[in-house]
Design brief:
The complex is a heterodimer of chains A (about 270) and B (about 240). By secondary structure, chain A is an all-alpha fold. Chain A has seven helices and two strands, in the order H-H-H-H-H-H-H-E-E. In chain A, strand 1 and strand 2 form a beta hairpin. Chain B is built from nine helices and no strands. In chain B, helix 5 packs antiparallel against helix 8. The longest helix of chain B is centred in the middle third of the chain and has 26 residues. Chain B starts with a helix and ends in a 19-residue tail after the last helix. The relative contact order of chain B is 0.11. The chains are: A mainly alpha (about 270), B mainly alpha (about 240). At the A-B interface, helix 1, helix 2, helix 4, helix 5 and helix 6 of A face helix 1, helix 2, helix 3, helix 5 and helix 7 of B.
Chain lengths: ~270, ~240
């Protein structure tokens, strides 16, 4: 192979692979680069000192606190769904049972937090509630509420289960102890089952990707024989499909990110002096 | 923008991100080699990578919930990323269990006793999922993977599948097998040490659980039979009971 081909291949490969990680790779490259001598820029006086933003540590306790906060959030969201009267009567008993499961999951995570030496988080996660839940169940500027009928209520509770299951699954490689990974997945597996049950009440949901899809509205065009008026019926935009079994592997795309975690202040360590 | 649209966008971002992630270790290794000639693998790096994944996956979906990557700082604990020798053994065992599930569904499909067309379609899809699980486990287990169904488990299950009288009997067996698989993966999570195998096992468990729900619904079981309060490891298939040859 020509050396130039090799060089071009390498460059193109780099472009493709590193393209999505501009910030991360720039940081690594910056660390590798020889320190350049900073230019001398004339100035007078000194700027006000700027505090560094507080570093937030993601450890087992933070993840467990986040897990219990998420469970309390789901319990409250379920309560909204139950109180709304929108859920079909066939689904209500299951939803009530699932809400109780989430209460038990919350208690389990609170106990695990305490066992790990942390302070249990016993309330709902306000960041998640305000950003994710509240916009679905409160009136928007036009007075409309997103969750306003049976199917939207079912999709609402289904999405809660998806977020919970994905969040716990995403925690697995970050938790330090196998027993804690086991604890979060003991809840995640059940949340995934909840989602599968709820999906079975959603009319547009399929059992799994690859299954035969139900008939959907199609675009129809009617042209008058005389060449006159044309009527076109436009199908509604396709929604993201919902499955009882989402595929061969559990998805983590709905997992919560670090800014919705429940951090805590670590007790200051003291150094004994003699 | 509704939550479904947000989640679709997040999935798109996640897919693009995963595509870019595939060669990231090589690229980072090359970059680090330029620094000091060694590649470090620690929880610090893993967390950082994880934070990028999460942020990329949720920045669209959960906009206000996700901020700068600096929020994800580090701890000093070092955790193995790649499978330990014991992990490899368990991964190989899990692969052998998955191949038993593939054989079981194949047996059910071949029996022609799955008379409902939708049920037959479901069986084929679930068989495909188990094949994918086996392939993923083999990829991680490397040379430890035998690529064969677990013989002792096959000996225990195959006669039952062959002797099943009808569709319901076959689905009952599949239901038990899926619940046992979910239980096995929960057990595995408490045993594997490294994060890579834990992550894979964690991504398979919910799917086995979902399979069990679908089968339980077809069998018209009470919801309490297929949705427990917690997953448990009490029905786990263990290497000690079904050792590999």
């Amino acid at each position: 192979m020509d050396v130039r081909d090799e060089a071009a291949r390498f460059t193109r490969r780099k472009l493709f692979t590193v393209g999505g990680f501009t910030v991360a790779t720039a940081a690594v490259l910056a660390a590798c680069k020889k320190k350049a001598v900073p230019p001398v820029i004339p100035s007078s006086g000194s700027p006000d000192s700027v505090d560094k933003p507080p570093a937030q540590v993601i450890d087992d306790i933070v993840l467990l606190r986040t897990a219990s906060s998420l469970e309390h959030t789901v319990v409250d969201a379920y309560q909204f769904a139950l109180d709304s009267g929108l859920l079909p009567s066939a689904a209500s008993p299951a939803v009530t049972t699932f809400q109780d499961h989430h209460r038990k999951h919350a208690a389990s995570f609170e106990q695990a937090t305490a066992t790990a030496g942390g302070e249990a988080f016993t309330k709902r996660n306000d960041i998640v509630w305000n950003a994710l839940i509240a916009p679905q169940i409160t009136k928007d500027s036009k007075g409309a509420v997103a969750v306003d009928d049976e199917q939207s209520a079912l999709e609402f509770v289904y999405s809660l289960e998806s977020v919970a299951a994905a969040t716990y699954q995403a925690m697995v490689p970050v938790l330090s102890k196998p027993a804690l990974r086991q604890a979060v997945m003991a809840a995640a597996g059940v949340d995934s089952r909840h989602g599968a049950v709820l999906a079975s009440f959603i009319t547009r949901a399929l059992i799994a990707p690859g299954m035969t899809a139900p008939a959907v509205a199609t675009t129809t065009t009617t042209t008058a024989a005389s060449g006159g008026a044309t009527t076109t019926t436009i199908a509604p935009p396709p929604k993201q499909p919902i499955y009882r079994v989402p595929g061969a592997f559990g998805p983590v795309s709905s997992a919560l990110g670090p800014n919705s975690f429940e951090y805590y202040e670590k007790p200051a360590t003291t150094t004994a002096t003699t | 923008m509704d939550i479904i649209t947000l989640r679709r966008l997040a999935r798109d971002v996640d897919a693009r991100h995963r595509d870019a992630m595939r060669t990231l270790p090589d690229d980072l290794a090359a970059l680090h080699f330029d620094c000091d000639g060694v590649v470090r693998s620690s929880r610090r790096q893993f967390l950082r990578a994880g934070a990028v994944i999460t942020i990329a996956g949720t920045s669209v979906a959960l906009g206000p919930l996700v901020g700068s990557a600096s929020a994800a700082d580090t701890t000093t604990t070092t955790i193995a990323v790649h499978p330990t020798d014991d992990d490899l053994t368990l991964l190989a065992f899990a692969q052998s269990v998955e191949l038993v599930a593939v054989a079981a569904y194949q047996s059910a499909i071949d029996s022609k006793k799955l008379t409902d067309a939708t049920v037959a379609e479901v069986a084929m899809i679930f068989r495909g999922h188990h094949r994918e699980h086996a392939a993923a486990l083999a990829a991680l287990a490397g040379k430890a993977a035998q690529g064969q169904p677990n013989q002792q488990l096959l000996d225990a299950f195959a006669p039952k599948f062959k002797g099943a009288a009808d569709q319901s009997a076959l689905l009952e067996l599949a239901f038990d097998l899926e619940n046992a698989a979910a239980s096995t993966y929960l057990y595995a999570l408490g045993v594997v040490q490294a994060t890579e195998p834990a992550q894979l096992v964690g991504s398979i468990l919910p799917i086995e659980a979902d399979h069990a729900v679908v089968l339980g619904q077809v069998l018209k079981k009470d919801v309490a039979n297929y949705v427990p309060e917690f997953e448990t490891a009490s029905n786990a298939l263990k290497p000690a009971d079904y050792p590999l040859a």
